[in-house]
Structure formats: structure tokens, C-alpha cells
Design a protein that fits this description.
Layout: E1 2-7, H1 20-23, E2 25-27, E3 33-35, E4 65-73, E5 78-84, E6 101-107, H2 110-126, E7 136-147, H3 154-159, E8 163-173, H4 178-182, E9 187-192, E10 198-202, E11 207-208, H5 209-213, E12 214-221, E13 224-231, H6 233-237, H7 244-263, E14 265-266, E15 275-280, E16 285-291, E17 298-299, H8 326-333, H9 350-363
Parallel strand pairs: 1-13
Antiparallel strand pairs: 1-3, 2-3, 4-5, 5-6, 6-10, 7-8, 9-10, 11-15, 12-13, 14-17, 15-16
Length: about 375
């Protein structure tokens, strides 16, 4: 399976880097690039405005909305471009003038609905039911263990040897995280569909970073699958002006990670397909950069046991392994250390690792 690289709109005569698709390849003796056996599966954005071929939306019935183009499809959900049918017929919490169209993410199966509920839980930390930013959110400031008091009952006697987690919480002032809160694709509302599906209404946020950096087209040639990777205008512009746009992208993502760290959560699935950008090539400026898809996110306190070890069974299984920190990969497989135990302090922030992986794809 061969890979060739070309540049889109090369009239700017800029030096371009090897694309992310090529970064995942190895060089053969003949000098051509071949994809490794672990070919990365690209998934579509959950709220991208660059629509794909519109499939029939007859099976997706969201009360009060007209669904048109399919924006993306992933393992757990399908995303549609949607327009409110009649603003006067239904009480809407969010600003319909500011958001005349929305991206509706639909979860249909029992397992996928749990993923959708996870997204709602995370979004509600920072935004209210209409997508307005909260002034503060509840965070864990201390966690300790205390022995359960003795009891005469048999059940309580069995619990005497266990420890009860005592969690102290506080309020985090979100005014210090305004940049981060503007850089998350916000949830505007949710609704249960007549068929039992769960529909989440998100703001439209632009196109996936991967779709703007490169495009890949494959065809068979002499019995092999040959891919042609074309680098987009954004990929070239990121390196102009001493990499100004690349610095803006990195700084924005790090600001979001600072919010996550203060809130004690991990996104666990940061990748180019989950970063939406609205880029104006004429002015060479980002209008917005948004991180999306919190279906795999976890509260750090919920995955740590009483001894401080990460409970590997609580780690999300739907994350993209190419961007996951190796410590967590080993922990999920039960191969970390001799005992398989890993504390939170044993590994770096997996989201920081993921951002580093994204940057490496861009600059290589």
C-alpha cells in the first residue's frame, strides 16, 4: 500500500511538511511510503459544518427540527445539520438568532446513549441547559479515606474492613478560563426522540482539523492500494510568520487542558477529528478553534481506587489508541509493571500526550 504526497495550491511557494498520513507510514527499500498494518481509521467530526454526502434522514426524527445534511458519523452517533422548523411553535432555551442552525448528534443504541449522557454530564459542568457559560463549577479539592464505624449487623461487620471515601468539594471560578470555555463546542440542549434515541444539540463549529490539513484519496495500482495525500492551505499557512498560527492552535488547546486539570477530568480522545476549526484563508486567521466529543471523558476521581491506583476497568475503551499515552495503553491491557497497578502520578496527563501527538503529525 503506497503513499504519495502533493501540495494543494502551491502558488505560495512555501515549504511544506510531510502530512500526518505520511507520518504514520514507514519507508520501504524503493523509497515509497507504505502504511503500517495499524492503519489509522479516520472518523468524522461530531459537529463539523463540512457536510458529507447526505444520506436519508427519515429514520432520524428530532421533534421541532428539520434534518438535512449528514455532517459526520462515528462509532456511537450520527451528526446532522438541523434547522428549527418554527421558533414560535416550540420554547427554545438557547438563542435561535445566534444559532439558526445546529449540529444534532443522535445516539440510538443503549450503549451509545450512555456515551451521550457522559457528554451531557461533562458539558453541564461549564454550561447551563442553554449553552450559557456558568460562573463557577464544583470540583474535588481533597479526597481521604476513613474506616467505617463498627456495627452489630452481619452486613456492616463485613464492611468494617473496607474504607469509605470522603470527598471534599469546592467551587472553581470559571472567569479565569474564558479562553478555554470559548474553545469547547458547547451543548445547547438535548431531547428524547419518539423512537427512544437521544439527540444532543450543539453549536456549529467549523470543519475538522484533519480535513483542513490534508485530504487523502486511494486507488488500486498494480494490485496495491495507493494513497495520494494532498496538503491543504491551512497546513501551509501554519508555518508562515514564524509559525504564528501553529502557536495559536497549540496555545488554545493548552488553555483547554488547564481547565480540564482544574476540574479533575480527562478528555481521553483528543485527535485532529475532534478539533474543529473555522479558518479564514483570506486573512490567515482562525475565527474559532473548538474541542468536541466528550463521550470518552472521565472524572479522575471516578477511576482511582482507595489505594490511589487507577482502576483499569474504568478507563474508556472507545478512545483512539494512536493518540493515547503508552502508560494508559499498558494499564488498559493490564501490562503496566509487575503488578499491573498504576497511580495517577505514574503517567503524564494523557490529554497532553495526545496534543503532542497531534502537533507531531502536523510538523513532521
Amino acid at each position: 500500500m503506497r503513499l504519495s504526497i502533493s501540495n494543494k495550491n502551491n502558488s505560495r511557494n512555501t515549504k511544506t511538511s510531510t502530512s500526518a498520513a505520511a507520518a504514520a507510514a514507514t519507508t520501504s527499500k524503493g523509497g515509497t511510503r507504505r502504511r503500517t498494518s495499524g492503519t489509522r481509521r479516520r472518523t468524522s467530526s461530531t459537529s463539523s459544518t463540512s457536510s458529507t454526502s447526505s444520506n436519508s434522514s427519515s429514520s432520524a426524527n428530532v421533534p421541532g427540527y428539520q434534518l438535512s445534511d449528514k455532517l459526520g458519523e462515528g462509532t456511537f452517533a450520527t451528526v446532522w445539520l438541523a434547522t428549527l422548523k418554527n421558533t414560535a411553535s416550540e420554547q427554545q432555551l438557547y438563542d435561535t438568532e445566534l444559532h439558526p442552525k445546529v449540529a444534532i448528534k443522535i445516539f440510538t443504541t443503549k450503549q451509545s446513549i450512555q456515551t451521550g449522557l457522559c457528554e451531557i454530564k461533562m458539558m453541564r459542568k461549564w454550561y447551563d441547559g442553554a449553552g450559557r457559560t456558568r460562573s463557577s463549577c464544583t470540583v474535588v479539592v481533597d479526597r481521604r479515606s476513613e474506616s467505617v464505624a463498627p456495627s452489630s449487623s452481619e452486613k456492616k461487620r463485613e464492611e468494617n474492613d473496607q474504607k469509605e471515601n470522603m470527598i471534599e468539594t469546592g467551587q472553581l471560578d470559571l472567569s479565569y478560563h474564558q479562553v478555554a470555555l470559548r474553545s469547547i463546542g458547547r451543548l445547547l440542549g438535548c431531547v428524547e426522540c419518539p423512537n427512544g434515541a437521544l439527540a444532543l444539540k450543539y453549536e456549529l463549529c467549523g470543519s475538522t482539523l484533519s480535513s483542513q490539513l490534508w485530504s487523502m484519496k486511494g486507488e488500486f495500482y498494480k494490485g496495491e492500494r495507493v494513497y495520494k495525500v494532498t496538503q491543504g492551505i491551512l497546513h501551509q499557512d501554519l508555518f508562515l510568520r514564524e509559525g504564528y498560527l501553529l502557536k495559536v492552535l497549540l496555545k488554545t488547546l493548552v488553555e483547554v487542558l488547564l481547565l480540564f486539570d482544574d476540574c479533575g477530568i480527562m478528555h481521553c480522545d483528543i485527535k485532529p477529528d475532534n478539533i474543529l476549526v473555522n479558518y479564514d484563508s483570506a486573512t490567515q486567521q482562525f475565527k474559532s478553534i473548538k474541542l468536541i466529543d466528550f463521550g470518552s471523558s472521565v472524572d479522575v476521581q471516578s477511576i482511582v481506587d482507595q489505594q490511589g491506583n487507577i482502576v483499569t476497568s474504568q478507563l474508556p475503551s472507545s478512545t483512539t489508541p494512536e493518540y493515547l499515552a503508552p502508560e494508559l495503553l499498558h494499564a488498559r491491557e493490564g501490562t503496566y509493571g509487575q503488578q499491573g497497578d498504576m497511580t495517577v502520578d505514574d503517567c503524564i496527563n494523557p490529554d497532553m500526550w495526545a496534543i503532542g501527538s497531534v502537533m507531531l503529525e502536523i510538523v513532521r
